Amino acid sequence: MADKNWQAGGKNLIPARAAVCLVALVAPLGAAWGLPDSIAPANYVGSADPNTVWEMLIGGIVVCSLLAAIALWILSALRKVKRSQLRRNAFVSNALNNLSQGVVMTDPQKRIVFCNDRYLEIYGLLRSDISGSMTGPELLEMRHKRGVLDVSVEDFYKYAGNPEGLVTELPGGRSILVKYFALPNGGSVATHEDCSEQRKLSRQLASTKQFLESVLDNVPVCVAAKSIDDGRYIFANRAFERFSRFSRDNIVGKRADEIFQPETAASIDAADRTALDSPGGQFRNQFIVERGSEKRVLASFRVVARDEKNQPEFLIVLFEDITERKSLSQELENTKKFLELVVDNIPVSLIVESVSDGRYLLANRSAETILNRRREDATGLTAADIFDPREAKLIIARDEAAIRKRGLLTEEHPISTKDGLRLFLTRRMTVLDEAGEPQYLIKTHEDVTDRRQTESRMVHMAYHDGLTDLPNRASFLQALSQMIEACEGTGEEFAVLCVDLDGLKEVNDVFGHATGDKLLIEVARRMQTTARGGVVARLSGDEFGLIIDGKQPAAGMALAEQLAQALANEFQIDGKSVRTGVATGISVFPRNGADAASLLANAGAALFRAKAKSRGSISIFEPEMDQQIRDRRVLHQDLSLAIKNGELSLYYQPQAMARQTAASSEVIGFEALARWQHPIRGFVPPSDFIPLAEESGLIVEMGEWILREACREAASWPMPLQIAVNLSPAQFMHGDLVGLVHSILLETGLSPGRLELEITEGVLIEDFDRGLALLRRLKALGVRISMDDFGSGYSSLSYLQAFPFDKIKIDRAFVINLGRNPQSASIVRAVIGLGHGLEMSIVAEGVETQEQLGFLADEGCDAVQGYFLGKPLPIAQYAVLVGRTDTMEPARKTG
Questions:
Q1: Percentage of the chain surpassing pLDDT 70?
Q2: Which of 866, 846, 861 lies closest to 808, judged by CA?
Q3: Alpha carbon distance 670, 720 (integer Å)
Q4: 420-429 contacts at long range (C-beta below 8 A, 24 or more positions apart)
Q5: DSSP per-residue letters across 213-268
Q6: If residue 480 lies in a helix (H) or strand (E), which one and from where to where?
Q7: Are 722 and 754 in contact, with CB atoms under 8 Å apart?
Q8: Other Cβ atoms within 10 Å of 583 Cβ, number
Q9: How many CA atoms lie within 13 A of 661 on its CB side?
Q10: Which of 251, 426, 857, 869 could form a disulfide with 236 if both were Cys (CB 3.0 to 4.6 A apart)?
Q11: Number of neighbours of residue 565 by Cβ within 10 angstroms
Q12: pLDDT, tens digit, 9 for 90 and up, residues 399-448
């Protein structure tokens, strides 16, 4: 069959060679036989020499035999060559037909000279489909028509001749790789290989590779692979890119020293060598790398990958940035130590025991008092191992009760300690596991022995006065409520007495608070003796309350008189004779109130009326007193709103130099005085609302407004006159007065030297040391300090010695009596001399006559103030005096 594969040109080769050989053999004989024309025989037989003829005959026979032999040899050789060629062709054809690839050969004229069976099989062709004169392009065109060529003939030759060949797709999903080679003689050879399986495997491999790379890229841990030979990276995942801040292209192919700092690269190389040298080919470590300006802590794991011969092929590196984790771990460790330290030092005993066997798992240092042993020695023991049987039985029973409750169980019980029997507050809390079953029991024991004793004392103190040990107001109201409940509906009466102790303030001022306290204790003792076991309470500093039953108000009046008589006797305290008196207010149940608060309030109203009369007075409550109190309360509420609603205003009274006439007395400043224009009541006198503000504490808020408004107004005057403002003792006791004055001066821009703050000696009476310190700080601001109402108190001279006042204001009570009372003139003259001796200015208040002004001028008084010089008026009335020329004339005299 093999000879059918070859064309006719191949068959003529051997006969041609045989003819050439025959000519080569016959040509010499012909030359030998050739005779000259002149020697031809005379006649064919008769004239020839028979020998010659015979020789010629024999020679011809020999020649013919030789030629025949040669021809036979040539023919035999030709046959032998042909058989050999046929065998070789058959071998080649058989070999090509058994190739796994399809093969097609063409001659220089592109005629198909060979195609093997595999080619026909691949494309589903028959041998008869290929004619003897078919060319390669014709064969491709036939395939294209039959649907087994998915490209054009031109594209086939264009792409199949490339080194990588052409892949064509056949129906059924098969892929054929075609490679076309041009031969030097102009012919060609094309191979056709079914690469469907390889393509499938390649796609699977690519998909697998892509999947693995995607997995590695999404692993949060940095993954890299390095060549063992040169240490260069051959793979890096996305986490490595993010950490190193280099793209993968800038990592792959580089060594560690080309990416990281030298110190970091050295650490990496050392870890790589350790992994390669380790028997198992693995190495874990932590090291620090420098990334930019920061240092990061990495945890790495290196694995040596080996080939099928167990030879190292490459190094796989996994590492993770654990800087934050390490920091958190350190923080957790510190927190653990901190919590252990806290648990050990909490002031209560803490014990944790296992529910399953009752063994103690944890105990802090404080628990050693309960356990009577070191906590290390108690761990692993049970209550039965630690306590005596009786105590252990009780503890175990309470533990079991808490476990059954599965919540908090709190109780107090005594426990024996080395310090004796102590009272402990024990809290038991059951901790459940994930299944909701009891797992641990936490117990805390707090020694409350001292606390309970303190609480007992505090309960007593809550209802008793700390100084006199009498019941206090709360206890008195409670007793009063019980008395009302007992008498209600029975027709019985009782009286409530409010007793005010006179002269306590003077005793404190003259003899000191220690003496005043002892006086209160003695007063309380005498009251209890006089009340003969009745209820006596201390309601406030110098106010006491009593309850007396019997026919009222006779019984109440009788007790009030007995109290007055008992307290009228002198008290001997620390060798001093102290006298005091009382004023009493009485209310009667049920006519003056049906509840405790009303009865006490009405007794207080009666006391207010009694104090207004005279010392030692006794007053029984009357309904109009209640109205007066209500009016006072309403006025207080209105005053609070007045400050917020801007109903207050400032009037200014001039202060002038003391000269013989009002006209010649030059104005040197003004005193700011508050006035209240009520929207309904009209003008409310200062004597009504100032004491009310003092009592209620509103004077602090009001005083701040007065100070700010006065400074703001004075700062606007063209003339730099003084502005005097009164300060209440309450302002010294509440808030930062110095800071307030400083901020107002800064806010208004008033020069500190123009501000004069007037105080009464009450500032120093309340708290001498604190008041003196505040005055010194105020003076340090540059403001002037004046003592108001000098001479009306008890300790003025000692205050002048303690603090360098800038000015002394003589109380108006002495000025008014000038010319009528020689003693007043002597006092005024003495005060002026005293002040000048201390280098202090003297101002006389209440100047209302020419006679008073003349006397003060003659005696050298520095300044005067009063109606004779000018009434308190809005500043607009004194516009010219402060340097303003666009308003009315000043009003200097009352007329």
A1: 89
A2: 861
A3: 11
A4: 422/447, 422/449, 423/447, 423/448, 423/449, 423/452, 424/349, 424/370, 424/448, 426/398, 428/398, 428/399, 428/402, 429/402
A5: HHHHHH-SSEEEEEETTT--EEEE-HHHHHHHT--GGGTTT--GGGTS-HHHHHHH
A6: helix 473-487
A7: yes
A8: 26
A9: 2
A10: 251
A11: 10
A12: 888 898 888 888 887 777 777 777 888 889 999 988 888 989 998 888 87
Q: How far apart are CA 262 and CA 230, in angstroms?
A: 17
d(CA 612, CA 720): 44
Structure tokens at 826: 């002597």
Q: Cα–Cα distance between 723 and 746 in angstroms, integer?
A: 16
Note the pLDDT of residue 768: 75
Tokens of 468: 């006199």
Burial readout 90-125 (b: 16 or more C-beta within 10 A, e: otherwise): eeebeebbeeebbbbbbbeebbbbbbbebbbebbeb
Query: Residue 621, Cα to own-chain centre: how many angstroms?
Result: 63
SS3 425: strand
Check residue 793 and give its pLDDT.
Answer: 53
- Span 689-712, pLDDT tens digits: 887 787 777 888 889 999 999 999
**What is the pLDDT, as a whole number, of residue 667?**
95
| Calpha distance 238→480 (Å, rounded) | 85
pLDDT for residue 4: 41
- Best CA proximity match to 251, nearest among 270, 229, 238, 236: 236
Q: What is the overall mean pLDDT for the chain?
A: 82
Q: Are strands 222-227 and 233-236 parallel, antiparallel or unpaired?
A: antiparallel
Calculated CA dihedral for residues 548, 551, 552, 555, nearest 10 degrees: -50
Report the distance separating Cα 750 and Cα 713, nearest Å. Answer: 9
